[in-house]
Amino acid sequence: MVRELDDCGLVIAQGQENAARRDLTFIERANFARQMRDAGYDRKIICDALHVDKILISQMLSVADRVLIEVIGSAPGIGRDRWLALADKLKGRDLADRAVGESSDARFEAVMAALAQPRPPAPRPRIVTVADGRALAEVARKRGRTVLSVDNGVSAGFEKWLVENLAHLHGDWQDGRED
């Protein structure tokens, strides 16, 4: 059976054939959607060609416009959510030189790693000294806690007094804040 198809019909048929012939990755489908849009096809035709709704087409096009598809490749192990996260993190940054790896999945991971926010260094502990200059205690702040380590050899019983009076000291501090 042979039938005549106009350009729109051909694009829809090509999209459906590609989908049936090969399990295309999200980014391959997004790239095809971008190519169709750039060729002047409207979203309804693109939706019909890829058998997806307009919301997914919008996501695909937003990713395809921002991501290094040609450099990374199809990345079959990377799903839609990770591509969307990559597109969100890229925000106009050119990291094509970071897309290094033997597989497209490895290139994707390399770009994601380059975008990872480095953790700020932990603040240095503060040393509290007594009048003669000896270290009485060390105060360290980490993971939402403040840790006070008192040198019992220097404190001469201060550590015991501090523990016994800590609740009272906290109460005095709170009273002073209310003023």
Structure characterization notes:
It comes from Rhodovulum kholense. This is Plasmid partitioning protein RepB. The longest helix is centred in the C-terminal third of the chain and has 20 residues, at 158-177. 56% of the residues lie in helices and 10% in strands. The chain is mainly α and 179 residues long. The protein has a three-stranded antiparallel beta sheet. The protein has two domains: 7-115, Arc Repressor Mutant, subunit A; 126-177, no CATH class.
Brief synopsis:
The chain has 179 residues and is mainly alpha-helical. Helices cover 56% and strands 10% of the residues. It has nine helices and three strands, in the order αααααααβββαα.
What brief labels describe this structure?
56% helix, 2 domains, 179 residues, 3-stranded antiparallel beta sheet, 3 strands, Arc Repressor Mutant, subunit A, mainly alpha
Distance from first to last alpha carbon: 89 Å
Radius of gyration: 30 Å
The helical percent reads 55-70%
Q: What is the domain tally?
A: 2
Strand content: 5-15%
Going by helix content, strand content and strand pairing, the class is mainly alpha
Q: What is the number of beta strands?
A: 3
CATH topology of the largest domain: Arc Repressor Mutant, subunit A
Task: Produce the secondary structure layout.
Blueprint: H1 7-21, H2 26-38, H3 43-50, H4 54-66, H5 69-72, H6 80-90, H7 104-115, E1 126-129, E2 135-142, E3 145-150, H8 152-155, H9 158-177
Antiparallel strand pairs: 1-2, 2-3
Helix pairs in contact: 1-3, 2-3, 2-4, 4-6
